[in-house]
Amino acid sequence: MLEQTGFVDVEIGPEWDTFGGAEGEANARTFDVRGYAFVARLPG
Amino acid sequence: MGDLLVDPGVLRDEVRAKYREVATQPQGAFHFHTGRSLAERLDYPAETVDPLPEAVVESFAGVGNPFAPGPLGRGETVVDVGSGGGFDSVVAANQVGPEGRVVGVDMTEEMLDRARATVASLGLGHVEFRAGLAEDLPVPDDWADVVISNGVINLCADKAAVLQEIRRVLRPGGRLQFADIANGRPVPEEARRDIDLWTG
After folding, report:
1. Is the dihedral of CA B105, B109, B114, B117 positive or negative?
2. How far apart are CA B181 and CA B31, in angstroms?
3. What is the CATH number of domain B8-199?
4. Is residue A17 part of a domain?
5. B65 at the A interface (CB within 8 A)?
6. Which H helix or E strand runs over B21?
7. Chains A, B: CB contacts under 8 A, how many?
8. What is the DSSP letter of B153?
9. pTM for the structure as a whole
10. What does each C-alpha distance from B98 to A39, B69, B82, B124 come to in angstroms?
11. Phi/psi class of residue B20: alpha, beta or left (left: φ > 0; alpha: ψ in -120 to 50)?
């Protein structure tokens, strides 16, 4: 979706176990939901 | 609503209600982590978080660390989409310095109140918070060197519209540096249409 919007140089990571130990952990584990960092640039 | 999985207005109301609670009762029980323990979990450096007063940190409810790929540059102009209680905006403000500028945008009045009080107490004159939606940012075209966001785009029904809006406010060559959640296993369509799962 980032590239479809016109962004380039898309990078993903690092990642985190965002919901580990939280009340919402069960839902997160069901779908393997984790947090990620993303970086993308617009063409200059 | 078109091809969207959920009604954007209904979802916004649900999200506002949830984050109003985080703003006004940050010590409450939520399905996600909050505050300093969350910042530590997400690898915010202690030297970044420890000096900040509790009022800045306690309502932090991000899902990752948008600064992990690299710090922002001195003097950069920044838009924080879904700035919440202002934690990431304050981190950004300290990275860009007084020669930079940070505009936080949020749709929850209680979060805006908290964020404005925070930056006033810290004397951060180069940070301001504006009421608005991620799909309609109150920021001029081509204004930002960088857009940050943390756990917000996943809460928007029309992600393509949000990304188009972010593109509008970024200058050519600018960057989007954000954190958000992604699922490693497919989510059935029935679950994707369950608005309660979007916020819980």
Report:
1. positive
2. 14
3. 3.40.50.150
4. yes
5. yes
6. helix B8-24
7. 119
8. G
9. 0.95
10. 24, 22, 22, 8
11. alpha
The ipTM is: 0.94
**Structural domain for A12, as ranges:** 8-41
Nearest neighbour of A39 by CB, restricted to B31, B175, B181: B175
pLDDT of residue B2: 62
Q: Of the candidates A14, A17, A22, which has its C-beta nearest B31's C-beta?
A: A22
Q: Is residue A2 part of a domain?
A: no
Task: Give the residue from chain B lying closest to A34, CA to CA.
Answer: B181
Domain presence at residue A3? no
Q: Could you give the number of structural domains in chain A?
A: 1
Q: Closest chain A residue to B38 measured between Cα atoms? A: A18
Report if residue A34 sits inside a domain: yes
For the segment B13-48, what is each residue's pLDDT rounded down to a tens digit? Answer: 989 998 899 999 988 888 899 999 999 999 999 999
Domain ranges of chain B: 8-199
- Reported residue count of chain A is 44
Shortest Cα distance, chain B CAs vs residue A3, angstroms: 10
Amino acid at B14: E
Quote the Cα angle for B62-B87-A12, to 5°.
45
DSSP, res B71: P
Strand order in the sheet with B144-150: A8-16, A33-41, B170-183, B144-150, B77-81, B101-106, B127-131
